[in-house]
Specification:
The complex is a heterodimer.
Chain A lengths: L2 E7 L5 E7 L6 H7 L21 E4 L10 H9 L7 E3 L12 E5 L5
Parallel strand pairs in A: 1-5
Antiparallel strand pairs in A: 1-2, 3-4, 3-5
Chain B lengths: L1 E2 L2 E4 L3 H12 L4 E5 L7 H4 L5 E2 L8 E2 H12 L5 E4 L3 E6 L5 E5 L4 E4 L1 E4 L5 E4 L29 E5 L3 H10 L5 E5 L9 H12 L3 E4 L2 E8 L3 E8 L5 E5 L2 E4 L3 E4 L10 E2 L2 E3 L13 E3 L4 E2 L7 H19 L10 H4 L1 E2 L5 E2 L11
Parallel strand pairs in B: 1-9, 2-3, 2-10, 3-6, 10-22, 12-13, 12-18, 13-14, 21-23
Antiparallel strand pairs in B: 4-5, 7-8, 8-9, 11-19, 15-16, 16-17, 20-21, 24-25
Helix pairs in contact in B: 1-3, 1-6, 4-5
Classes of the chains: A alpha+beta, B alpha/beta.
Chain lengths: 110, 352
C-alpha cells in the first residue's frame, strides 16, 4: 500500500499538502487530526460517529466519493455553514482513489 | 450544603468508576452533571452503539456499560446533582473546596475530581444574527416548562427526535405548532415520525420543509420569524409567540475553563507521572477532560486515571494514615449500605 497526497485548506486559509496512509483504516477526519490541521477539541469531537459536524469540509476537487449514508445526511441537514459540496471528513475513508483530493475545512461552529 | 469526600464533576464512565475505587478506600463520592441522567456521552450521544475496547468485554453497548457501572457502584451510595452545571469553585482556608452549580446547589469536599469529558453539553444555537436579543423573550433552546406554551403560537426547528417529540407534545398545548426543517427527511424513531405525519394530516402540526429560519422580529418580544423555503428560495414571514430551535447538544468546557486551571488543547493539564492532579493541589482531572504527553481519550484510560486519583485523594485526606492497595478478590467489598461481597471460602475437607 502507498501513501496518497491530499491538500487541506485549514480554517485560517492555509494550505497543507500532506501524505495520508491508505492501509491504516483511517478516515479524512483522523488524517486531519493527526496533522493537527485544527486544534485538538475543535475537530472530530464526537470521535467519528457523524454526530457532530466539527470535521465538515468542502470538497474542492472532482473526486468520486462514496455516497453519504443516512447518518451523514442527517447530520449535514442540521449542521451550520453547509454547502452543496459539504461532507463529513469522518465518513470518508482514505483510499488510493482519493490521491490528489483537495478539501477546505469548514468553519468551527463557535 | 452537600458534604462528601470526593466531589466528582461529570457522571460519565470515568466519574462513575471513580466512585468504586473511592469506595474501596472508604471515601464517599458525590457527582455533579449537567445532563439529567448519569452516563455522559455514553447515555446522551450513543447509548445503542457498541464499544469493543473495554477489557473483558468483547462487545458492550455504551448504555449497558453505564448500567453496569451504576450497578457496580451501588454499594457505595454515590450522591448525584443532575441537570446542573458546576459553575464556581472556591478554595477555603483549610484547603477544602466549595463548588456551586448554576442553580445554586452548594457542595463541600476536600478533593475535587473533574471528570468532565468534553465539557458540559449545551444546546447548539442556530446562526441567526439577532437571536441572542430574543433569548428568553420568545426564543428557547430547551423546553423546561411546557405550560408557558399553552394557547400560544409555537415554531420549532430541527430534524431529530427532540424536534419531533416536542412538536407532538406541544400540539396538545399550544394554539398552533409549526415544525420547520431544512430537509424533507427527519432522523428520529419511526413512531415519532409517523405521529408527526398523522398530526400533520389532522392539521394539528403545520410542517414546513425544506425551509430554514433566517430572521427574527419583534420589539421587546418575538412576534414573527422570517423563513426561507429551500426549493424556491422565497421568503415568508410567520407570526409566532415562540421559536424553539432544537439542533442537539454540543460539548463546551464551560465555566471550568475559568477556574485557574492550566489548559492546553482544550483540556486540563495534569501530572501524569503521579496522580492526575492539576496545577491546583486537591483538584484532579481524569478521563477525556485532561491532557498529558501521550494522552489517549479512551474509557479504559479514564478508569486507570480514576484509580490512581483515588489513591492520591486518600493520602491527601488522611496524610498520616498508611494504606496498602487490596485486591477485591482477597478483601471483598464492603458497601456503605452494609452489604458485603466476597469470594466464597475454599472448602477444607479431607478426601477419604
Amino acid at each position: 500500500m502507498q501513501d496518497i497526497t491530499i491538500t487541506i485548506i485549514d480554517r485560517e486559509g492555509v494550505s497543507h499538502k500532506i501524505l495520508a496512509p491508505t492501509d491504516m483504516n483511517m478516515n479524512l477526519m483522523e488524517v486531519m487530526k493527526s496533522y493537527e490541521i485544527a486544534p485538538e477539541g475543535t475537530i472530530g469531537i464526537c470521535g467519528g460517529m457523524a454526530m457532530c459536524a466539527s470535521c465538515q469540509c468542502y470538497i474542492e476537487s472532482e473526486h468520486d466519493l462514496p455516497e453519504k449514508n443516512d447518518e451523514e445526511e442527517a447530520m449535514l441537514s442540521e449542521a451550520f455553514f453547509v454547502k452543496v459540496n459539504s461532507r463529513l471528513g469522518c465518513q470518508i475513508p482514505i483510499n488510493s482513489y482519493l490521491n490528489g483530493l483537495k478539501v477546505t475545512l469548514a468553519p468551527a461552529e463557535n | 450544603m452537600i458534604k462528601t469526600d470526593i466531589l466528582i464533576i461529570g457522571a460519565g464512565p470515568t466519574g462513575l468508576f471513580a466512585v468504586f475505587e473511592a469506595g474501596l478506600l472508604k471515601l464517599k463520592c458525590h457527582l455533579i452533571d449537567a445532563l439529567p441522567q448519569p452516563g455522559g456521552q455514553c447515555s446522551e450521544i450513543y447509548p445503542k452503539k457498541p464499544i469493543y475496547d473495554i477489557p473483558g468485554f468483547p462487545e458492550v453497548l455504551a448504555g449497558d456499560l453505564v448500567n453496569n457501572l451504576m450497578e457496580q457502584i451501588k454499594p457505595f451510595q454515590p450522591g448525584f446533582t443532575l441537570g446542573e452545571r458546576a459553575e464556581t469553585i472556591e478554595k477555603l482556608e483549610d484547603g477544602t473546596f466549595v463548588v456551586i452549580t448554576n442553580k445554586g446547589t452548594r457542595h463541600h469536599a476536600p478533593v475535587v475530581a473533574i471528570a468532565g469529558g468534553l465539557g458540559s453539553f449545551e444546546p447548539r444555537k442556530p446562526l441567526i444574527p439577532n437571536i441572542q436579543q430574543f433569548e428568553d423573550r420568545g426564543v428557547e433552546y430547551i423546553i423546561r416548562n411546557p405550560e408557558i406554551y399553552r394557547n400560544k403560537r409555537v415554531v420549532l426547528a430541527g430534524g431529530g427526535d427532540s424536534a419531533l417529540d416536542w412538536s407532538v407534545f406541544l400540539s396538545n398545548i399550544a394554539s398552533e405548532v409549526t415544525l420547520i426543517h431544512r430537509r424533507n427527511e427527519f432522523r428520529g424513531a419511526l413512531d415519532s415520525v409517523e405521529k408527526v405525519q398523522e398530526l400533520k394530516k389532522l392539521g394539528k402540526i403545520n410542517l414546513i420543509t425544506p425551509a430554514e429560519v433566517i430572521g427574527l422580529r419583534g420589539i421587546n418580544h418575538l412576534d414573527s420569524i422570517l423563513i426561507q423555503h429551500g426549493e424556491t428560495q422565497t421568503e415568508e414571514i410567520i407570526a409566532t409567540d415562540h421559536f424553539i430551535p432544537l439542533f442537539g447538544l454540543s460539548p463546551k468546557l464551560g465555566p471550568i475553563a475559568d477556574w485557574g486551571l492550566e489548559i492546553e488543547k482544550n483540556a486540563i493539564k495534569v501530572d501524569n507521572r503521579l496522580d492526575y492532579q492539576t496545577n491546583i493541589p486537591g483538584i484532579y482531572a481524569i478521563g477525556d477532560v485532561n491532557t498529558y504527553p501521550g494522552k489517549l481519550k479512551l474509557i479504559l484510560c479514564g478508569f486507570h486515571e480514576a484509580t490512581l486519583m483515588c489513591q492520591s485523594a486518600y493520602q491527601r485526606i488522611f496524610p498520616d494514615k498508611r494504606y496498602v492497595m487490596k485486591y477485591t478478590t482477597v478483601g471483598g467489598i464492603d458497601g456503605f449500605d452494609g452489604s458485603r461481597k466476597e469470594a466464597p471460602k475454599a472448602v477444607i475437607k479431607s478426601i477419604n
